[in-house]
Structure to design on (379 residues):
């Protein structure tokens, strides 16, 4: 097969001499050529003010605040609903004496009636029927016993 | 210093702006003084453009508009960062700008990778990771840029007959002598001898103007 002339072969396959290293000046020239082709020596146009100025925050700030407010309102609503549900359920329970008296009377009206009937004053004495309302055990039925009864009669919801 | 009359900022002319320091220029730019911004860009734009070129040479060569876009993004990013945090000023603006240029370059490369065009040739995740880890030194960049500027000035002093040969620079530096000779319509041996003379002239010119610094060392391209 006939060999193609050198001139033709140069177009088909560029003849590159790899045994001829580049001089530092040539290296710099190659870099310079690339930099010029890339436009390194050009001038960057002045950026427009609208490009770097942040947009007004009057829209951004209320949106952020509104989001936080919505979260706070949701939490407050949930707490309110839970609180209302709990209080409604508790209020449906009957009122009970918090602390039982020593005689475990059925209701406070009976005790009050007993105190009114048995009251003898601080210097009086207690008969056998009224021994149950001598709460402080000092041998009489007086206002101290009534006060003691009031203090022990708390209402538990 | 730009004058502030009647509560409204008056634009500084380019002559007075050129005497201001970087931070004063930044302040004036943020107040809307275009002359101050232009002065600041005149000082550092070539560093920004060269940093982008060194980070993504192939992208820049593929589309010269790409470099303009990323450089513009870099300046926009600088002003935006100062706008957001006016109290925080870097000690070295050149280092700060180089970092922003690098960030914008990598962001642009990543954006291209996510578009339908596909990633640019030679840039995969590994290459991007490698670029992210390397930190360009602004001092080195400026020094290299000065060498290139000097080379450009020396090349401009060559006679026209030699400048024609420089048009085949790409083929010659790739040692495609035959191809370059055919394009210049001269024999390979003539081209080689004339090229040697051109290099000698450039070397003499650069040595005389730079005090011995000939050219930057060969570096790995991206």
């Amino acid at each position: 097969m006939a060999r193609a002339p050198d001139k033709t072969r140069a177009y088909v396959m560029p003849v590159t001499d790899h045994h001829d290293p580049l001089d530092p000046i040539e290296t710099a020239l190659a870099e310079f050529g690339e930099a010029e082709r890339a436009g390194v020596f050009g001038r960057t146009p002045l950026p427009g003010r609208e490009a770097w100025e942040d947009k007004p925050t009057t829209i951004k700030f209320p949106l952020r605040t509104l989001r936080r407010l919505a979260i706070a309102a949701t939490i407050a609503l949930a707490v309110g609903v839970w609180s209302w549900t709990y209080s409604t359920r508790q209020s449906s329970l009957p009122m009970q004496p918090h602390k039982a008296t020593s005689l475990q009377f059925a209701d406070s009206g009976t005790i009050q009636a007993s105190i009114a009937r048995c009251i003898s004053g601080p210097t009086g004495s207690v008969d056998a029927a009224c021994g149950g309302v001598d709460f402080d055990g000092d041998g009489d039925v007086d206002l101290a016993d009534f006060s003691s009864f009031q203090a022990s009669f708390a209402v538990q919801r | 210093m730009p004058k502030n009359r009647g509560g409204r900022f008056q634009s500084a002319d380019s002559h007075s702006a050129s005497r201001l320091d970087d931070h004063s220029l930044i302040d004036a730019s943020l107040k809307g003084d275009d002359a101050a911004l232009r002065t600041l860009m005149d000082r550092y734009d070539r560093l920004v453009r060269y940093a982008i070129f060194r980070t993504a040479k192939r992208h820049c060569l593929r589309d010269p508009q790409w470099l303009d876009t990323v450089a513009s993004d870099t300046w926009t990013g600088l002003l935006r960062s100062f706008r957001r945090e006016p109290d925080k000023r870097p000690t070295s603006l050149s280092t700060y700008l180089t970092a922003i240029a690098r960030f914008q370059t990598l962001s642009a490369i990543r954006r291209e990778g996510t578009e339908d065009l596909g990633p640019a040739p030679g840039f995969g995740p590994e290459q991007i990771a490698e670029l992210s880890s390397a930190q360009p030194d602004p001092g080195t960049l400026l020094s290299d840029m000065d060498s290139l500027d000097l080379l450009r000035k020396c090349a401009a002093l060559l006679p026209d007959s030699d400048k024609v040969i420089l048009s085949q620079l790409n083929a010659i530096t790739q040692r495609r002598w035959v191809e370059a000779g055919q394009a210049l319509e001269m024999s390979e041996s003539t081209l080689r001898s004339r090229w040697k003379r051109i290099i000698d002239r450039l070397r003499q010119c650069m040595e005389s103007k730079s005090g011995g610094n000939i050219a930057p060392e060969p570096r790995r391209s991206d």
Summary: Residues 96-156 of chain A form one domain. Residues 96-104 of chain A have pLDDT under 50 and may be disordered. The radius of gyration of chain A is 51 Å.
